[in-house]
Amino acid sequence: MLVSGKNILNDAKKNKYAVGAFNVINDVMIRATVDAAVELQSPIILEFAEIHFKHSDFELIAKEVVTIANRVEIPVALHLDHCKDFNNFIKAIKFGFTSFMYDGSSLPYEQNVKMTKQVTDIAHSLGYSVEGEIGHVGEGVEYDLPQTSKLFTTPEDASKFAKETGIDFMAVAFGSAHGIYKSKPNLDINLLKKINNVVDILLVLHGGSRLTDDDFKNCIKNGICKINYFTELSLIAKYAIRELINDNDNIVGYPEILDASYKVIKERVKNRILLFGSNGMA
Predict the structure, then answer these.
(1) Which of 30-34, 65-69, 145-149, 265-269 shows the lowest mean pLDDT across its residues?
(2) 11 classed as catalytic
(3) Would you say 112 and 136 are in contact if contact means Cβ atoms under 8 Å apart?
(4) CA 5 – CA 149 distance, rounded (Å)
(5) How far apart are CA 206 and CA 188, in angstroms?
(6) Alpha-carbon distance 154 to 190, whole Å?
(7) What is the rounded CA–CA span in Å between residue 209 and residue 261?
(8) Is the dihedral of CA 50, 54, 32, 27 positive or negative?
(9) Helix count (H) and strand count (E) of the chain?
């Protein structure tokens, strides 16, 4: 069943687990993720990021997720990830999205507040939920802790931003990064704990790939309810395809490539669901 992100995450916060928010860019990723969640009876968030519009049709992805979500009994939210264009937010509403991230983290603070609040007011009037970001979660390829830490979320900014925008959940920067890290990530769990102590909204981890199991457990223990996850799904599919072709080059076609991708993505999503503790919570 299709629900808002807030409906899913409120229960996660109450019962101290996290929900995987898996970015999907095609039919294989959608089916693998939902099938994994159904098998483990887990709520799930499927995300489509603005940066991936060049790879798949925005409207068609939404239609497939909405169709599949309405076929299953587990809660499924369709979330627009890292939206920077207000027009795409409006389109997402029309296409059936139930949750939205307006990413104004690269804007001056006042402009970030203004745009995030505008999105929040519209979404709330329709019963949908909104994620904002304060501080800046950068890219893993540029990861350098002394420089990255200058962009970390402060407890003061987090509290102020939550009150001024009215958002439902907040992406916070405390040491993770998007994509492939050039060096080992070093999460500031103490900072996360301080942020969690001063805000009363749901907290989001971006850059969930390449973190250790202990990293995830510490994050969940200290308030993280939503964990964004894409890069490792992309990488394990690549490795599976490479192995398949190397071992069976003369008999491999496109259908076999899709099957190999589906299998490894589904297994990794199941693994993450179990680690995050959302199994059986649907």
Answers:
(1) 145-149
(2) no
(3) no
(4) 29
(5) 14
(6) 11
(7) 17
(8) positive
(9) 11, 8
Phi/psi at 80 (5° precision) = -85, 120
Give dist(CA 205, CA 266) in Å, integer: 21
CB-side neighbour CA atoms (13 Å) of 90: 4
| Token digits of residue 52 | 């991936």
For 157, counting Cβ atoms within 10 Å of its Cβ (0-12 exposed, 13-18 middle, 19+ buried), the class is middle
- The pLDDT of residue 31 is above 50: yes
CA 53 to CA 111: how far, in whole Å? 25
Residue 257's pLDDT is what? 95
Q: With 0-12 CB in 10 A as exposed, 13-18 as middle and 19+ as buried, what is 156?
A: exposed
Residue 218 confidence class, pLDDT cut points 50, 70, 90: very high
Alpha-carbon gap, residue 115 to 164, rounded angstroms: 11
Q: CA quadruple 251, 256, 257, 263: dihedral positive or negative? A: negative
The beta strands (E) that lie in 176-218 are given as 202-205
Residue 68, SS3? Answer: helix
Q: The tokens of 221 are what?
A: 């223990």
Domains of the chain in start order, with CATH, are 5-276 (3.20.20.70)
Sign of CA dihedral 209, 211, 213, 219: negative
Please pick, among 27, 81, 103, 200, the residue that the annotation labels catalytic: 81
Strands 224-229 and 129-134: unpaired
Residue 37 has a CB neighbour count (10 Å cut-off) of 28
Q: Is the pTM of this model over 0.85?
A: yes
